[in-house]
Specification:
Order of helices and strands of chain A: EEEHEEHEHHHEHEHEEHEHEEHEH
Distance between the termini of chain B: 28 Å
Largest interface: A-B, 26 and 24 residues
Largest sheet of chain B: none
Largest sheet of chain A: 6 strands, mixed
Number of strands of chain A: 14
Number of helices of chain B: 12
Radius of gyration of chain A: 24 Å
Strand content of chain A: 25-35%
Oligomer: heterodimer
Structural class of chain B: mainly alpha
Helix content of chain A: 25-40%
Number of strands of chain B: 0
C-alpha cells in the first residue's frame, strides 16, 4: 500500500530525510519511532501529498505522490501533528466541510457515524474553539477517518490525551489497522510496542532499524535476561544457578534477588527453577526482563552518534 | 468546480462570524448614506431656484468603488494568511483540492460577500427612482453596478493573491491597500508628464476604466477585459504562491 524508495528531503541546506526506503502492506500498522526532528513528520507530509520530495519516489495505493497527488490524497486520511482545525466552526460543520471537500455522498450521515466512532456525538454542535486538547485530537481523527481511507497516516495520534483516552484511541487504531494500512509516528516507545506490527526506528533522517517490536528486542539483546526472587538470603544461590547448563552469567542484585542470562532460543527456566528449589530455597518469583524499546532506542541512536 | 463552491460557501459564511464583515458593511452604508443625503438635498435646493439637475445614481456607485480600495483588503487579508497561520493549510492541501481551486474558492467567497453588500446599496437607486418624475435611467444603474462588480472582482483577486504571500494578516492588508491605491490613483499620473508611452499609463490606470465608461452608463469590452485580466493575475499569483510553498 505504501512504497517508499530512496526518499530524501532537503530544507535549504539541512537534510531532513535521508534516503529512506520502506513499504507497508494492507492491514499493517507501521510505527515510525524517533526523537523530535528525526524526519517523521516530513516523511508523512511527503506521503500525504503536502510537499514533494527532493529526491526519491513514493507511491501510496499504487499512485505516485507527486505525479498523481490528487489520487493519493483521495485515499489517504491524515492527522497532522498540530491537529489544525477551524476553531470558529462547530464540530459538525467542520467535519461536514471536510466531507464536502472530499465530495462524500450523504456527508451528514457519515459525519454522525464517525462522531459516534470517536465518541464525540454529544459535542457535535459545540464550537471547536471550546474543546479540550483531547477532544480536538479526536475531531482530527474523525476527519482522517471520514472518507474511509485505504491508508491512514497519523502524526503523534495520542499526544496530549489523558490515559483513558490514550487507551481508547489505541484501541480504535488497532481496529482500523485490521483492514487498512496505518502509518503512525510516535516518540513514546511503549506505544509503538503496544499497537504496531512493525517498527521503523528513524534518527537524523535515516532508518536505523526495522522489525517487529519483539524481534527488535531479542535481536539487540543477544541474550534473554531473567530476574529471580527467593525468600530470605541469597547466600550461595548464584553458584547454584551457575551450575545449570546454558546459563551465561549470574549477577546478585539486592536482597533475595538474582539476575541471570541465557542464550535466546533455549529456554532453561524450568531447569533453573528445579535447581533453586532443590537447593532448599523458597522460589517467590521468576520473570523475564526484556530489554525495553527505550533501551533499544537509546542504544541505536547512541551508536549512530558514536559513529559520526 | 464543486470544490470551489464548497470553499466559497465556507468563506462566505465565515464573514458573518467575524466583526470585519459587519464593520465593512456598516461603514460602507454609512458613508454612502451621507453622500446620498447630500446629493439629494443639493438637487432639491437647486430645483427650488428654478434651475437644478436631476440626480442620478453615479455618486453612489462612484464612491462605492472608491471605498473598496480600503474595504477589499479588509475582506481578503485573512483569506489565505489565516490558513497558513493556523496550519489548516496542511489540511486543505492534503485533501483532494487543487491549488487553484482553493484560491478561486476564496476569491468567489469574497465576491459573494461583495454581491450581498451591493444588493444592500440598491436601496439608494430605488429611493431616487421613486422621487424623480421620469424615473431613473436603469441602463446607467445596471452598467455602473456591473462596473463596481468588475472592480471588486479585480481587487479581491489581487487581494487573495497577496494574502497567499503572507502568513501575517496585517502585512497582507497593507500591501493590498498599497497596491490598490497605486493602481487606482498613482499609476495614471505619469500619463500627464511623459511624452511617449502615455497611453500605457492611461491604460493601466484603474479608475479611468470605471468612471469614464461604466459609471457613465457605457459597457466597453476593453474595460471588461482589463478588470478580468487583473482578476486572473491576482488568482494566478495566489495559486503560484501556494504551489511555491510546497516546494520550499
Amino acid at each position: 500500500m505504501i512504497r517508499v524508495n530512496g526518499l530524501t528531503k532537503d530544507y535549504g541546506s539541512r537534510r531532513a530525510v535521508d534516503q529512506i526506503t520502506f513499504d507497508a502492506q494492507q492491514g499493517e500498522i507501521l510505527g515510525f519511532l524517533g526523537p523530535n526532528g528525526a524526519g517523521k513528520t516530513t516523511t508523512m507530509r511527503i506521503l500525504t501529498g503536502y510537499m514533494p520530495p527532493t529526491e526519491g519516489e513514493a507511491t501510496v495505493a499504487g499512485y505516485d505522490v507527486v505525479e498523481e497527488s490528487i489520487e493519493v490524497r483521495r485515499r489517504v486520511g491524515y492527522l497532522p501533528e498540530t491537529v489544525p482545525l477551524y476553531t470558529d466552526m462547530s464540530v459538525f460543520e467542520y467535519l461536514k466541510f471536510m466531507g464536502d471537500l472530499r465530495r462524500l455522498p450523504n456527508v451528514e450521515d457519515r459525519v454522525d457515524e464517525v462522531l459516534e466512532q470517536v465518541g464525540l456525538a454529544e459535542r457535535a454542535d459545540g464550537t471547536v474553539h471550546n474543546l479540550s486538547k483531547g477532544m480536538r485530537q479526536r475531531v482530527g481523527l474523525a476527519q482522517a477517518l471520514l472518507h474511509r481511507p485505504e491508508v491512514l497516516i497519523l502524526d503523534e495520534p495520542t499526544i496530549g490525551l489523558d490515559p483513558g483516552q490514550v487507551v481508547e484511541v489505541r484501541k480504535l487504531i488497532r481496529e482500523i489497522g485490521k483492514e487498512r494500512t496505518v502509518l503512525l509516528s510516535t516518540h513514546i516507545l511503549s506505544e509503538a510496542q503496544n499497537i504496531c506490527d512493525r517498527v521503523l526506528i528513524i534518527n537524523k533522517g535515516r532508518i536505523v532499524a526495522e522489525d517487529t517490536p519483539e524481534n527488535l528486542q531479542s535481536r539487540l539483546l543477544g541474550a534473554e535476561r531473567v530476574i529471580l526472587r527467593v525468600r530470605g538470603e541469597t547466600d550461595d544461590l548464584p553458584a547454584v544457578i551457575e551450575k545449570v547448563r546454558g546459563v551465561q552469567t549470574v549477577q546478585s542484585k539486592e536482597e533475595g534477588v538474582v539476575e541471570f542470562q541465557f542464550a535466546p532460543g533455549q529456554d532453561i527456566r524450568p531447569e533453573v527453577a528445579k535447581a533453586v528449589v532443590g537447593a532448599g530455597y523458597d522460589l517467590l518469583e521468576m520473570r523475564p526482563m526484556g530489554m525495553s524499546l527505550e533501551e533499544i532506542f537509546l542504544e541505536l541512536t547512541n551508536t549512530e552518534r558514536g559513529a559520526k | 468546480m464543486k470544490t470551489v463552491w464548497t470553499i466559497a460557501k465556507r468563506e462566505y459564511n465565515q464573514y458573518f462570524n467575524s466583526p470585519i464583515a459587519y464593520v465593512v458593511m456598516f461603514m460602507t452604508l454609512l458613508v454612502l448614506g451621507i453622500i446620498f443625503a447630500v446629493v439629494f438635498r443639493n438637487s432639491m435646493d437647486s430645483a427650488m431656484f428654478g434651475g437644478g439637475f436631476t440626480p442620478d445614481n453615479s455618486p453612489i456607485t462612484g464612491n462605492l468603488v472608491f471605498l473598496m480600495v480600503f474595504s477589499a483588503p479588509a475582506l481578503t487579508m485573512r483569506l489565505v494568511s489565516d490558513e497558513l497561520r493556523m496550519g489548516t493549510m496542511e489540511l486543505i492541501l492534503t485533501a483532494p483540492v487543487r491549488d487553484w481551486e482553493l484560491i478561486v474558492g476564496k476569491w468567489l467567497g469574497a465576491l459573494l460577500f461583495i454581491l450581498t453588500l451591493l444588493a444592500l446599496t440598491l436601496v439608494y437607486p430605488l429611493i431616487l427612482n421613486s422621487q424623480i418624475n421620469n424615473g431613473l435611467d436603469w441602463g446607467q444603474v445596471l452598467a455602473s453596478y456591473l462596473g463596481v462588480l468588475l472592480v471588486a472582482s479585480a481587487f479581491l483577486g489581487l487581494g487573495v493573491g497577496i494574502s497567499a504571500l503572507f502568513s501575517n494578516q496585517a502585512a497582507a492588508f497593507f500591501l493590498s491597500m498599497g497596491t490598490f491605491m497605486f493602481l487606482w490613483w498613482l499609476i495614471g499620473f505619469p500619463a500627464n508628464l511623459v511624452q511617449g508611452g502615455a497611453e500605457v499609463f492611461q491604460y493601466l490606470d484603474m479608475q479611468s476604466h470605471f468612471y469614464n465608461t461604466f459609471n457613465a452608463g457605457q459597457i466597453v469590452l476593453a474595460d471588461v477585459v482589463y478588470y478580468l485580466s487583473l482578476t486572473a493575475l491576482g488568482l494566478f499569483v495566489g495559486t503560484s504562491a501556494v504551489e511555491m510553498r510546497r516546494w520550499r
